Amino acid sequence: MGEAALAVKGLTKRYSGRAVLDRVDLTLEENRVYALLGEPGSGKTTLLRCVGGLCRPDEGEISVLGNLPRDLTAARREVGMLIDQPAYCADLTVLNNMRLQARIIGGVDKKRIASLMKAMGITPRQTGRRSAGGCPPSVRLSLAVALAFLGAPRLLILDEPYSGMDGDTAELLKTLLEREMSEHPMTALISGQFFAELYPVATDFIIMDRGRVLSQMTKREVEARLPAGISKSGEYEAFYRALAKEVGAGS
Amino acid sequence: MMNLIRAELFKITRSVPLLLLTLAAIAVNVFLSSRSKVELTDLYGLPELSSVSVFVSYFEERDMSASSAKAMMAKRGYLDPEESRAETLIEVFEDIQPHQFKLVLSSVKGLLLLPLLLLYLYILRDFRTRSYLNALYTGRSRAEVYFSKAATFISVSFIVSFISVLLLALSYANTVFSRLPAGYVWGRCLLCALLDTAVLAVPFMLAFALRRPPLVVTAAMIYSLAVRFSPGLVWPAAAKSGIELWSQNATSGLIGNAVLSAAVFIAASLLIGWLAFERADLK
Question: Cβ separation of A87 and B125 shorter than 8 Å?
């Protein structure tokens, strides 16, 4: 086993005295895709926000790509993130948003910008000279995903990217993820509410409920429990609800 | 840090609305300031003397000669009778323009709207669309994000203020630039822009301390009104409103104090904003 891409130990975050994260322990290995599953309010976004440095945990430690907490800022230069809502500059075109992010990161060439835009289905014909603020929400989401990939991150964090994403774009994201992972070492942590959305891309599953990590299992372990012959998303969700209940969700 | 500053400049130059609103901010500043030039005639106690034509008519209608007008203006301290070589009413009017220039510098009004426009342009839209998070997402520290924005905001505020004051000074070009030392005019324009920039540092601090656009705009509006109607409450605004600072005879101590007050005010504002931003949970 190589160095942990992300290690979280005893992470606790309270808002107004209520623990939104309750002593979360988590270890992500390199070159895997983790699906972070849980109902709304289970603590997924707060966990990702703590990892991303947007909020400070009350207790616990975070280690990113083997770096100690005091070096986290530097370590995050090898992380790509999309947390909560897409972040973009409304007045700039989609292309200029990519160029802006490339300037922030430094050392990103034009080919990579073009390649990522194409991979996420953002075409000049689609966006034209419109500002990002004037583009449909689906394009802004694709832009935010492309921005997260731009620096060829070793750790990619996507918070509910499938919310508001159509099936075709979800397929593009899957292809892009596979391509990037084949080109350079990368671990992905993708959160979502729906098992069916994350099942095709994930190699591992983490189930959260009420601020706690209930279970972390590999795809093989999940597949062993998956009933044969299910194909509809409703069936996958029914399976996931039963699985979550089995590991302690809602109890 | 330099990458972030370059990115901020890229954003400013590639955003058409941003450029248009910057020009609008300058235009609004100059317009409001030029309005104050007209209103300043109240300070003369002769409201009708707002332009050269009414100035000339005023004295002609009263059968007053240029020398009587000159004596009257000298008595009020608007011109130096020993230096003035005015022989016509038009020349007397030109000779009182440097005095009016001083009064204008001490009471430029454009600041009422400028902070809100600049805030909207450079900070609040970033909070609304969360674009400032993209720098944090790539491992830039909060300090880098904050101080690159501060450096850009303070620089842009200074440039916009300086251009505004310079355009205002140009409206006195015939008299001010030909009769006053260039160093004095440029120096006072720079000082005026520096004090305006110091005043604008507070809305920047408010933006990072409060972060919610409606809250920030309300607080900035209250602050702008305070600057406009009670400049004594705000250190650099108080320094700016004193006519002595804009006189050619201002002591170096007075000017030094004004520069120092501006620098301390900017530093203190940035520090408060940083302390709030450094500890905040960002959404």
Answer: no
Using a pLDDT cut of 70, give the percent of chain B over it: 86
Q: How far apart are CA B265 and CA A229, in angstroms?
A: 70
CA-based nearest residue to B266, from B243, B239, B247 = B239
The residue extents of the domains of chain A are: 6-249
Please give, rounded to a whole number of angstroms, the shortest distance from the CA of B143 to a CA of chain A: 11
Nearest alpha carbon to residue A26 among A64, A83, A76: A64
| Structure confidence at residue B40 (pLDDT) | 44
Angle made by CA atoms B279, B282, B283, in degrees to the nearest 5? 160
Contact A55, A14 (CB under 8 A): no
Which residue from B11, B14, B138 is facing A151, i.e. has the nearest CB? B138
Is B49 in a helix, a strand, or coil? coil
Backbone φ and ψ for B141, nearest 5 degrees, come out as -75, 160
Structure tokens at B63: 């059968």
A113/chain B closest Cα distance in angstroms:
16
Nearest to A19 by CA among A52, A60, A77, A64: A60
What is the CB neighbour count within 10 angstroms for residue A146? 27
Do B56 and B89 form a contact (C-beta atoms < 8 A)? yes
Of A81, A90, A131, the CB nearest to B137: A81
Q: What is the CATH number that goes with domain A6-249?
A: 3.40.50.300
Element (H, E) at A156: strand A155-158
> How many Å apart are CA B69 and CA A11, to the nearest integer?
81
**Largest alpha-carbon pair distance within chain A?**
52
Q: Which two tokens stand for residue B40?
A: 């300043």
Pairing of strands A59-64, A6-15: antiparallel
**CA dihedral (B115, B118, B121, B122) positive or negative:** negative
The residues of chain A scoring below 70 in pLDDT are: 1-2, 68-72, 251
Interface test with B, best of A49, A99, A104 (most B CBs within 10 A): A104
How far is it, in rounded angstroms, from Cα A34 to Cα A29?
9
Percent of chain B as helix, strand, coil, to the nearest 5 = 80, 0, 20
Over the stretch B246-270, which tens digit does the pLDDT of each residue have? 877 788 999 999 999 999 999 999 9
Residue linked to tokens 């004594």: B232
Q: Please report where in the chains the tokens 């399976």 appear, as a residue.
A: A239
The H helix count followed by the E strand count for chain B is 15, 0
Beta bridge partners of A208: A213
Q: How far is CA B237 from CA B114, B195, B223, B228, in A?
A: 14, 7, 11, 9
The pLDDT tens digits for B149-208 are 899 889 988 888 888 888 877 777 766 777 778 888 889 889 988 998 898 888 889 888
Written as one letter, the residue type at B84 is S
Q: How far apart are the first and last CA of chain B?
A: 22
Q: Are B282 and B133 in contact (CB under 8 A)?
A: yes
CA distances from A213 to A146, A219, A239, B198 (A): 29, 17, 19, 50
